[in-house]
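User:
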Amino acid sequence: MTSSTSAPAQEVAVVILNWNAADDTIRCVQALAAWRHLRPLIWVVDNASQPDDAARIAAACPTVHLIRNPRNEGFAGGTNRGLEAALTATAAPILLLNNDAELDEPNMARLLATLAAHADAGIVGPLLYTRRERRLIAAGSRNPVLHYKNLLPAPAAADAAYPVDYISGSVALIRPALLATAGLLDEAYFFTMELADLSRRARARGYRTLVEPGAVATHDLARSAARRSTLYTYYIVRNRFRYIRKFYRLAALPLTGVWLLYGLLLNARLRLSGEPASAQAVWLGTSDGVRGQWGGQNDRVLAACETAADAPEAATP
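Assistant: Predicted structure:
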């Protein structure tokens, strides 16, 4: 009699952040639960959403590990709570997945295969497309303080994984050993550029960040469009200055001067083009970056941008 015992499914830990988007999170978890050959162990971190959000997720997704943060810790802090829990529970690779992103099982398997095939791969990501138009969003990124346009416009290779400075945190597969040596995300960034920072620390420890062009994922940018001209703009402008302070001690002064000038010019252009809210976000990001004002600033930035939009003449720095 021949045994037909099948091999156990490969585990992958998945960390999903939720902030007032229970519908997206539930849909994301349910898609993962439909996988047949991989076994996702899912941690959902609720970043102090409205009370009903976490309750709805718990009811609809009873098998996930739900972490309820008492305050909004941003992408970095919220993700770290999930990473800490996952690292304690399993030695499996860890997937960071935005709740408005989609990665199917075959593409996940390709990322896992690439991670396994390259012993020095610390972080692996797919090509990232918009969900509706299927437009390429990201094929990897270059150093964010040495390049104004840091997103690669096209894949660097068509049929083999290739190294990049960093990838989007929307879909990122991470080797646990990297986190054990390089540490978790820097929570001072709060939102955006955390993966650039982690990838930089990874390279110093012999790990590469790779894009696997044979794997694709989608991201619904429309879900976050309302915040991109204010909060996203603020943090991307501000966080460049933190990256400079951490990694460019000798060149900190000239690089700070370059991005200060960029911020002032962009602020002026946005004001002249009738975009006072975005201009205010740039101004606050620039001034906070130069002064070293880190961490979450959501309420302050949104209030200032709303005031600028209502009374542009009162928002001149």
